């Protein structure tokens, strides 16, 4: 008899990945999966890759979810707070939305609109001290997918004083699942295959989260939509302070981490190598011409960028092995 | 202490998938992985998705492989026999190549050239009686990827007498990993993305294997190269005999199978739903205009079509649970 | 001062391709482009590839369109008849929809529903006698994209008596633009990339058109959705009659055709080679095992399968050079 | 009787695109196309998209090429100088390689190795004064594809004094055809589909060319390989000087240019919109958080980034209309 978990918002891509991970998890029992408009539909109709999972989507309400020991919320931004308030106090929650990530209410209101719901423990265990904080929490705000990719690349460099926080420039490309599962013309296969484009150029709502998590003071972050279903590749550049090589800092920061890998010299991250896993691959160099630090970071936006990261947090919160039910290895090619 | 297994030919795509599955298998220990030209290279350089697996490729010889309890051979066609002859008698073998699949030596020689190496137990557990035969064997010839896809769709219909074996027409499309990892201009991303083409049109070497496994007497099989890394979708058509609906026959044949799923009516197979899994998805209908039976079959050519299927056979041969280390669920989107 | 043409339904993919071809056509002047919900929007916003074309979408009505010498209708099936009835009698029309393709009203009603609108000259100039018929017509029904691909492969073989019309089996894969530009979850890039699936399996509405155009008596046609924006690859198989090689028949049929190419022996069609062109590439063989004729046919579903074909018909109707404004060559890779 | 042109290095992707453009050009006659190892092969075998072009590849030597009025060189870097020296003095040349782009011999030697061959007129007509210089030249060095994309975005801003040349950061993603047509495992479809990765990170050989063409003093340029055949998307960021909006500068610079388009406000460049064309699409903003200028630039690496750009230069050199044989419009979707 395992630990009872439920997923709210199970019809989207992050929700589907959560179901897959929970179904293969040795210590978690999936007791409910809910969806707004598709309640009553078998999971395998909504997610054909889960054919063989005998479960029907329920309604997203406290009655359906409240019986679990831990609930994952994979809802559209802005909907977590209301549902969380209805769940019994003893139910642990990992929220994959943005609602509880920011400490600064004014920034929340400027970038997302609406009232700030509050601040939960930030769900990135690889940040210093954060693993213990997650273990002690009943409420965890999972990172955004861009934030995870960029923070793992940048936070140790700023913390170590080798990267200037005043001038960070990032371009990060995401597969289309990062844009969600809503029917939109600009996300049709005909439009995205063979195409690259930026979006929310110059004003992405994840910038405050990334600054908060990395310690950056100024951050230009340009997101690019790439013609592939999964994966984020971030190129993070910063002006160096001193002469410590950024690779050494990253190696020291992640030497004992099971899921964050600084690649051997000469090998650069490939998003495809992380698909389906909870791994993040990193490499760093100093640019020959400009002298800027360049860190490249790759992960699966639905894996370490969303669902797998959420399971890692849940494992820590539940006191079970942190790597349980998660894969270090990607599915490639 | 698990069962000791080794992989020969570990630098290719099927080899890499074998390593991934073995690394996550609860009862198998990977003791050696070998490759011809890349001996001495760390596995994670050849397969970046296996970053975190601390193993270096060895030489493909009996000294390196002979210490294992079971060896997977993922070698180019024609190379398995020589190596198998050198391995100690007590070592079990699953061969992913074509060398030992055919019973008819003359057909082997016509389609593959060279001398016929012999015939091993055919590694498709879902065929009637085959699970027991595999369990009793030390040498198993894994199915080809097209053969697995088509046989699962067709064999029960011919066996049940509802499909005419004299006039089978198949068109089957494969992702590019089915064409292997050799550097060829026609397999460059620039050439295959956005493109569909047939190959070996009218004379594919897998036809004798498919006829042998399905009981078809006449088989037109046209393979298509599709712009995706993984997956095979086969459209199998046959003239019906009698009025039994083909779907009923397939449901009866696979009711107790963990990895072969006849989808609910109205749902048709998607290759993406099987990526990374050992599952095969099937659906069948009778064509309105022609009256022909149409069965559509989807699987992952590196999964149920190669490496995962090989692990399933190994599990049976080793007397451990048949589903150990294998996933029913695909990684999608 | 060129011939005045207009496009109704210009916001879809076929409509966009028509605009591109007309903009580059030496003898046609684009005087209006209309769209239902996007009237008032600049063309280059709806079709960014047409940036530089200074035109705003108008309303789809006779007032906007009636001033042209020739109107292309690229409307959803079922909407052409009403609009055509409102256009002045002297305006020539090429309809890219299905409304006027079928001769048999009963078949129309069974496959499409609603009342049959009538029958116009069938717009495939390469069929015997059809070029003259198109030249003499003011109303032409352009072929469907699957119908063009399959008819060019099959019609000469049936006409020559070398393929048995009683048992045609076709599997044809299309890029996603063939499914249109409506926002649907199953057409999202995240869903289609890396995926193959059949659709309308066993009952596609284009079967009656293909039978009418090819002379087939029985036709099993399974359509597959392929992960690429453009292109159709059809594998057409038939039982042979006599010993004439199908390639000879096709070569004779198309020896003088500018846009239909029987490839040199040993070369097989690639859809990518036809993208952006009005060409169809063909190759044929006799299957070693089954003895069936296999013809493979490739074209661009928006080119020879829709917009370029429509321009070819318009050129013929207008008495200008048939190849004007059309490319034989594809844009590849 | 048109102007006689020839293409050396016609078997690669840029060579194939040159042939396509020349075949459709109203004033150019293709008299020879040559290739090193594939001399003697019909063009349509090497480039199936050119089926219908009746021409056989010749040997890459002065005898085959010297009879033309203008020769395009699409050779591997380092091979143009030797061939150019053998061509008769009256033959105009456009070199698509890097050999003659740099003015600084020391930089050439550091980034490319070998001796510097010299400096030809730089083939980017949209740079101030460059159109006239090209018109007066018999020898033109076509831009590199990254250089074209980035220079069109950046040069006017530095020239106008609104972007600080001391701190330019660029991330630019290219389709796979930019990596050429050599058979390499890392360029296989199986490897690149579904994947993003950087390459030559921190030390790309095009940096000196870009600095020379843009006036940048310090340039960090990270190239990314994207899963699509064609297209480059560059995100160019710079610290602003003063308050002039970068969009205004770009609009002024390109107001009269036929092929460089500053998109309407709110519309951002898509590479797919430029495929097959000679167009470059630009948009600019000022980043909300960092205040950096962000310019996004998209073009077809084989179009405005190589072959179409070369034809534009040739048109200017030959005194024929600059837009002859070139398309403003892309082939999309």
Automatic annotation (TrEMBL), chains A, B, C, D:
Residues forming the catalytic site: 145
Q: What is its EC number?
A: 1.2.1.38
**Where is this protein chiefly located?**
cytoplasm
The regions listed as transmembrane in this protein's record are none
Keywords, comma-separated and alphabetical: Amino-acid biosynthesis, Arginine biosynthesis, Cytoplasm, NADP, Oxidoreductase
Q: Which reaction does it catalyse?
A: N-acetyl-L-glutamate 5-semialdehyde + phosphate + NADP(+) = N-acetyl-L-glutamyl 5-phosphate + NADPH + H(+)
| Pfam families registered for this protein in UniProt | Semialdhyde_dh (PF01118), Semialdhyde_dhC_1 (PF22698)
Q: Which residues form the Semialdehyde dehydrogenase NAD-binding domain?
A: 4-135
Task: List localization entries.
Answer: Cytoplasm
Query: What function does this protein fulfil?
Result: Catalyzes the NADPH-dependent reduction of N-acetyl-5-glutamyl phosphate to yield N-acetyl-L-glutamate 5-semialdehyde.
As for family, the record states: Belongs to the NAGSA dehydrogenase family. Type 1 subfamily.
Q: What is the name attached to this protein's record?
A: N-acetyl-gamma-glutamyl-phosphate reductase
Which organism's genome codes for this protein?
Answer: Winogradskya humida
